[in-house]
Amino acid sequence: MAVERRAHLAIVLSGGWHHIGTTRMHADRRQGVVDENCHLHGLGNLYVVGLPCNRTAGSANTTLTVMALSPRLSDHLQTKLALKGATQALGRGAATRVAIL
């Protein structure tokens, strides 16, 4: 058993493996950990971007997916911060009517 386990670990720990799917992306909180904007379901300002958001591994280099998700999250956060700043400038009543997701 120990020999089989060592052989398996040698295969798993060799190059070419990525941690994928640990913070699965899905709009439904029952099926995923983060939404389409990499925001953790149910947690205020916590975002996760990277390979853990992928549901499965593709056949190509996974770095390109991270390179696409990162600026997308950046754009989302810039929009969110701009919206938050605009509502705060309008006063407390306006801010309570705006949902920032």
By secondary-structure content and strand pairing, the structural class works out as mainly alpha
Strand content: under 5%
Indicate how many domains the architecture comprises.
1
Characterize the main sheet: none
Shape: elongated
End-to-end Cα distance, whole Å, is 50 Å
Mean pLDDT: 73
What low-confidence regions span 5 or more consecutive residues with pLDDT below 50? Answer: 90-101
Rg on CA atoms, Å: 19 Å
What fraction, in percent, of the residue positions are helical?
Answer: 40-55%
Q: What is the string of helix and strand elements?
A: HHH
Q: Give the total of beta strands.
A: 0
- The total count of helices amounts to 3
Outline the fold blueprint.
Elements: H1 2-12, H2 63-90, H3 92-96
How would you describe this protein?
- This protein has 101 residues and is mainly alpha-helical.
- The chain has one domain.
- Helices cover 44% and strands 0% of the residues.
- The chain is built from three helices and no strands.
- The chain has helices spanning 2-12, 63-90, 92-96.
- The longest helix has 28 residues, at 63-90.
- It is elongated.
- The N and C termini lie far apart (50 Å).
